[in-house]
């Protein structure tokens, strides 16, 4: 496979347009309508608190990127059936369950600009509705009946949980290396991206090579996406606009902008990072100082550069498929993931 | 099927011995050794916190009743294979995951006489390791490869979560009826008992009638078991011995001893229950008063009587199987479940 130049919208020779999600949104719109119908139908329960709480998050304006990847991959390989609709809904349920549990774990109070479910409904109900959605996801997979899909998604779920525990262990540990960080985000974020992509090739029965190509696309995209997310938390533009909240900083989470700023810093700066990550500097002034140090060593840019590397690997992973609207949209989505600012 | 007199140990004509778990423990010992090996092997992870936390609960002296039921049912129907060992371990993982999440949900500090995992390791890790074990359970089922077993256990898991949410909704609601209470414990406790039993008939390919008989045994036993558990929390003997802690009372959980005491009480007593369940009376004196009112209306005995009813239905559900050591042990286990005092 060779590096692939993704045809962005606009005429050849134009300056490349700013990458956009619009092509993948258009590509997957019909499929996503079917997926959304499954999601709405299968989050119901006779216990009214369950759809109320699940709906709070599910209807809360998420981009449903993971099921969208399943749909896009199915388009890419020309799958004609509809089995992937239920499975894409299962993927979104697994993701929603992990978000609900994450918000409890992190004690978060805002997600997607709304109060989190744990704030509105309390931690107990949030944990339990996460469990419900997780079980429902497996019910959907069992209905589909593919043991191979079940294996991929059960395995991904275990890896996600391991990644989350690993992240918890690394929290407030200033000595966390870039390698360990990549291993954590590979598990907690990329595992579900790559499973979401791979299952499209499984239901279409396309064989190991196509499965692996989609898996590689998803994994690299997931890493790129998480790197970009972690960059935003320390982006000085975003801080000036009041869009970044410094949650990772206050939680003592070791993300790449901090790992690199610590590595590149002088003794005094390193002492600041040690204290901050240990939880002794959490004021707005401390956060501003952290953002300043990160700007000094340009580690948001360095993180974005790493993200672009993985986005390019994602694009190259599907370069072997014939050129198509789907392939172009998936490539542009990867570029979008790493160029978004907040 | 007719009512069945269970041959207890001891000579015919002897006064029936006190029911014991010993026969079912002896019956299932070889199988449980195999199950325990799977449990120990599959709770491992490269993230050290995972086996540490899981092991805290799993090695913490639980009776492993649910996997034991799978093994006992396999003995009852003469299954010769070993597929049920992995599946019984999956059942125990699902149970352990729900216990971990329950302890977080209830804010419990003691289980089986030990500090709970959430106290030792914190809520965040406890939620996440629960998720890990839940995923691992599905991985074990996928390895076995029976979609029917996957369907039964995914369905049971969703029902358990629904039951837990329903219990949360009923918490501090004095008007909870016996019917609703039975529906809650049917979901949160009995669903996994009946799945644990049923899957033995599935792997042995014994057909719908035997599946249903084992399902009925498990469901009724689960209800009996939970009723007996809920009785113990208000048993005056147990309170005198300092064995009951009144957790349900302080949490405002509506269990049958309270439901019946409220129904049978006079106006003044009903007012006490309303205040207590609403959370306004949680002192040791209040608990002592609650235990006194429950003794006055004998609702611990009434709850035990209900438990015996379901235990008898469990026994009758397997009465159609030929008499055997397994059938006798399973019957005695049902009687034991409802006769234990603390």
Outline the structure in words:
Two copies of one chain form a homodimer. With 342 residues, the first copy, chain A, is mainly alpha-helical. Chain A has one domain: Orthogonal Bundle (Farnesyl Diphosphate Synthase). Helices cover 72% and strands 1% of the residues of chain A. Chain A contains 16 helices and two strands. Chain A has helices at residues 22-42, 49-58, 65-76, 83-106, 117-121, 123-144, 147-170, 178-203, 208-232, 236-240, 247-251, 256-264, 267-278, 284-296, 299-317, 325-339; strands spanning 110-111, 114-115. The first copy, chain A, has a two-stranded antiparallel sheet with strand order 1-2. The longest helix of chain A has 26 residues, at 178-203. Chain A is globular, with a radius of gyration of 20 Å. Mean pLDDT of chain A is 92; it is low at 7-15. Chains A and B meet through helix 4, helix 6 and helix 7 of A and helix 4, helix 6 and helix 7 of B.
Helical segment count of chain A: 16
Termini gap of chain A: 33 Å
CATH class category name of chain A: Mainly Alpha
**Strands of chain A, total number:** 2
Low-confidence parts of chain A lasting 5 or more residues at pLDDT below 50? Answer: 7-15
Largest interface chains and counts: A-B, 44 and 43 residues
Looking at how many chains there are and whether they match, the oligomeric state comes to homodimer
What is the fold-level CATH name, i.e. the topology of chain A?
Farnesyl Diphosphate Synthase
Main sheet overview of chain A:
2 strands, antiparallel
Topology order of chain A in helix (H) and strand (E) letters: HHHHEEHHHHHHHHHHHH
Shape descriptor of chain A reads: globular
> Can you name the CATH architecture of chain A?
Orthogonal Bundle
Briefly note the structural class of the backbone of chain A.
Answer: mainly alpha
With strands numbered from the N-terminus, the spatial order across the biggest sheet of chain A is: 1-2
Mean pLDDT of chain A: 92
User: CATH homologous superfamily of chain A - what is it?
Assistant: Farnesyl Diphosphate Synthase
């Amino acid at each position: 496979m060779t590096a692939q130049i993704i045809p962005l919208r606009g005429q050849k020779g134009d300056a490349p347009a700013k990458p956009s999600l619009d092509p993948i949104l258009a590509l997957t719109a019909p499929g996503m309508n079917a997926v959304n119908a499954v999601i709405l139908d299968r989050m119901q329960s006779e216990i009214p608190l369950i759809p109320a709480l699940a709906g709070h998050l599910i209807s809360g304006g998420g981009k449903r990127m993971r099921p969208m990847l399943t749909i896009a991959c199915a388009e890419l390989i020309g799958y004609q059936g509809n089995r992937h609709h239920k499975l894409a809904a299962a993927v979104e349920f697994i993701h929603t369950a992990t978000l609900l549990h994450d918000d409890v774990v992190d004690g978060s109070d805002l997600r997607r600009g709304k109060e989190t479910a744990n704030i509105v409904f309390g931690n107990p109900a949030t944990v339990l509705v996460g469990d419900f959605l997780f079980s429902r996801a497996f019910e959907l997979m069992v209905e589909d009946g593919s043991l191979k899909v079940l294996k991929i998604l059960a395995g991904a779920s275990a890896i996600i949980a391991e990644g989350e525990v690993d992240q918890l262990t690394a929290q407030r540990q200033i000595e966390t290396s870039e390698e360990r960080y990549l291993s954590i985000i590979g598990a907690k974020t990329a595992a579900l991206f790559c499973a979401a992509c791979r299952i499209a090739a499984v239901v279409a029965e396309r064989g190991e090579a196509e499965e692996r190509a989609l898996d590689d696309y998803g994994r690299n995209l997931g890493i790129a996406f998480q790197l970009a997310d972690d960059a935003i938390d320390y982006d000085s533009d975003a801080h000036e606009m009041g869009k970044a909240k410094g949650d990772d900083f206050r939680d003592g989470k070791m993300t790449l902008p901090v790992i690199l700023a610590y590595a590149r810093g002088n003794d005094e700066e390193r002492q600041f990072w040690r204290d901050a990550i240990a939880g002794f500097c959490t004021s707005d002034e401390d956060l501003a100082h952290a953002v300043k140090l990160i700007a000094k060593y340009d580690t948001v840019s360095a993180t974005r550069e790493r993200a672009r590397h993985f986005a390019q690997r994602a694009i190259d992973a599907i370069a072997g498929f014939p050129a198509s609207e789907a392939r172009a949209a998936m490539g542009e989505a990867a570029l979008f993931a790493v160029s978004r600012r907040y």
